[in-house]
Every structure is written in structure tokens, then in C-alpha cells.
Amino acid sequence: MSRQATGPLRAGPLRERARAVGRAASLLLDVFNPAVMVVTEPASVLHEGHLEEIRGAALELSHVCDGPERIVVPHAGPAVLPEAAATALLSRVFQDPVGTLREGEITPAGMVPPERAPLHSSHDGPA
């Protein structure tokens, strides 16, 4: 069963938010001109009308976007944001899985021992 709502978006805060996201998308489209722009704004994932409002605002304001189909939602649906957060948290494991196990930061069961400091991002510098 799909959790995505359909139909036009009613006036109000969600519609204003969709228009604001569309304005931001138009600027990004004008500067970078990507073949596809993935919008992870949560309401656009759950309500098709929100995505259409974003596309409309972007198409109206962009100088280079000639097709609204370039703006899409992620295929992961509503799970995209937690999955992205988990990816950032696990970046050290992805970079050196065996070394991370050897250092004892992750046990064979996949748990981080509570007495250890949390994993650091590769952007934080040396741990």
C-alpha cells in the first residue's frame, strides 16, 4: 500500500513551503544545470501535489529548466533521510571495515560498546 497522497495541494503553509523549495531548486538548476535534481523535502515524498508545486515554482523561475520531470523524489521514499544519516554515521566502517573491528569500535554483533566514544566523521580529522 502506498503512503503517498495525491491531488492538488491546498493553500497554506505546505503550499508556501513547496513554493520556497521550488525557488531554491530553480537557483540550483540555474547554477549547476543537473540532468536530474533529487528533492528530499519530506512533504514532497509523501504528497504528490507538493512535488508538483515544487516543479511548478522551479519551472516558472528557472532560466535553464525546460522540463519539470528533471525534479524527482528519491526512490527510497520516506526512508531516505534516516538512511542518509546512517550512511554518515557508518562512514568510518565503510572506509575500513576490518580496521574498525580490530580497534574494537564495533563488536562482531554490530554494537558500539557504550564505554567507547562515538564514531567520528572523516571530516572531523583523526580520531
Structure, described:
α1 (13-32) packs across α3 (48-61). With 127 residues, the chain is mainly alpha-helical. It has helices at 13-32, 42-46, 48-61, 80-89, 91-95, 97-102; strands at residues 37-38, 71-72. A two-stranded parallel sheet has the order 1-2. The chain is elongated. 17% of the residues are buried. 47% of the residues lie in helices and 3% in strands. It contains six helices and two strands.
What is the gist of this entry?
The protein contains six helices and two strands; from the N terminus they run αβααβααα.
Please specify the SSE layout and strand pairing.
Layout: H1 13-32, E1 37-38, H2 42-46, H3 48-61, E2 71-72, H4 80-89, H5 91-95, H6 97-102
Parallel strand pairs: 1-2
Key features of this structure:
two-stranded parallel ribbon; 2 strands; mainly alpha; about 130 residues
Mean pLDDT: 76
Number of strands: 2
Residue fraction in strands: under 5%
Roughly how many Å apart are the termini?
Answer: 44 Å
